[in-house]
Amino acid sequence: MSPRSYLDFNATAPTRSEVIDAVTKAMQEGGNASSVHADGRAARARVERARQQVAALVGADPAGVIFTGSGTEANNQALRATKCERLIVSAIEHESVLQARDDAVICPVTPDGLVDLEALQALLAENSSSTVVSIMLANNETGIIQPVVEAVQIAHDAGAFFHCDAVQAAGKIPVDMMALGVDSLALSAHKIGGPQGIGVLICRDPSLMARFVHGGGQESGLRAGTENVPGIVGYGVAAECALVGLDNFGGLANLRDDLELRIQELEPNVQIIGKNLDRLPNTSKILTKGLTSEVQVMGLDLDGVSISAGSACSAGRVEMPYVLAAMGVPEELGLCAVRVSLGWTTTGEDVDRYIEAWQKLYDRKIAET
Ligand code: PLP
User: Fold this and answer.
1) Rounded Cα–Cα distance for residues 204 and 223 (Å)
2) Atom of ligand 1 at shortest distance to CA of 75?
3) Is the pLDDT of residue 27 over 90?
4) Model confidence over 110-152: pLDDT tens digits?
């Protein structure tokens, strides 16, 4: 049995061995993808191959793929460089969307954690001129899959541009950019076993996007800076592995459901957010009244299990997670939420270890009360 159980794939996934090999080789090969000589042309060929591999993961046209320095940068570019005056974002977006501009209008979510489509329609009816709507495909905290196709329809009917943050969804569920109908999509390599610090913004019509990082003419003039060839190569390999492994990833729902069942057998009052909704197969948001997220994360860590609280900790104070606040979850419960996220390395033994460690914490809490 491995010394630790890593159950925090939504924070970052372990780098795949195929990626490490490919990145190492690309670093040894070197070359600037903008150089005209043979070394440069070879680097360019590696970048273009990766562009195709990443596009294939989400059914996109490789011509619309812009490599960026992260998923955060991709979201920032989409929302700041589309030349739209008005921005509507859902209340449960990642900070890289919520903080991209300080004039965003917030679209609420239902108590189930789904973007409120009637509210979106009303916001667009107020004013939809020069507007970009940004709604994620799957939430990073709850794993709940959003009604993006319906939201795109509403946005397009009102003449708005639609951006989708698919950072958590790509490689975990099938994603088809064309079928979704979105105008742009943000992805990140490290969530699927690629290197950290590489993402993409994919545009259906790159002519609608302005340059975000200024300097040289790389990435069709839309993102200046010498391409991170090893990182891009690694991303391409990770995308290919993720596409091949999509069915197996879907099978993680069995392990995840087993974990949830066993926790609820130990304590029937434990709440699982979005249990009956369409969720990412690897994600579980678990609320245990009376057992704070801080105690759970630290206690499990000591027992060799890595999970996340999903609540920001600033100046020593654990804050209510804004995603749960937006769903109307009471603070006393929100402060007791943890996120468990599985991946391709997860085994039944990892689930056993989680359950044992959790039970120890829970028994201690019972003994204290
Ligand atoms: N969007 C979502 C939904 C995420 O979960 C994350 C990372 O946690 C990001 C965007 C940002 O991606 P990156 O870490 O590549 O900046």
Assistant:
1) 16
2) 10
3) yes
4) 999 999 999 999 999 998 889 999 999 999 999 999 999 999 9
Cβ(231) – ligand 1 distance below 6 Å: no
As a whole number of angstroms, the distance between CA 259 and CA 326 comes to 26
Q: Residue 230's closest CA among 16, 13, 30, 69? A: 30
| pLDDT of residue 333 exceeding 60 | yes
| Sign of the torsion formed by the C-alpha atoms of 63, 69, 74 and 77 | negative
Query: Directed axis angle between helix 17-29 and helix 229-244, to 10°?
Result: 150
> CA–CA separation, 2 vs 200, rounded Å?
33
pTM of this prediction exceeds 0.85 = yes
Active site residue 313: yes
* Ligand 1 within 6 A of CB of 94: yes
Instruction: Give me the domains of the chain, ranges plus CATH numbers.
Output: 5-13+248-368 (3.90.1150.10), 17-244 (3.40.640.10)
CB 70 within 8 A of CB 198: yes
Decide if pLDDT at 313 tops 60: no
201 touches ligand 1 (CB under 6 Å): no
Distance 74 CA to ligand 1 centre (A): 10
Q: Which of 56-65, 67-76, 312-321, 326-335 has the lowest mean pLDDT?
A: 312-321
Q: Beta-carbon neighbour count of residue 277 at 10 Å? A: 13
Residue among 144, 151, 185 at smallest CA distance from 167 = 185
Tell me: pLDDT of 310 over 90.
no
CA of 52 from ligand 1 middle (Å) equals 22
Q: Is the dihedral of CA 262, 324, 79, 155 positive or negative?
A: positive
Does residue 199's CB lie within 6 angstroms of at least one atom of ligand 1?
Answer: yes
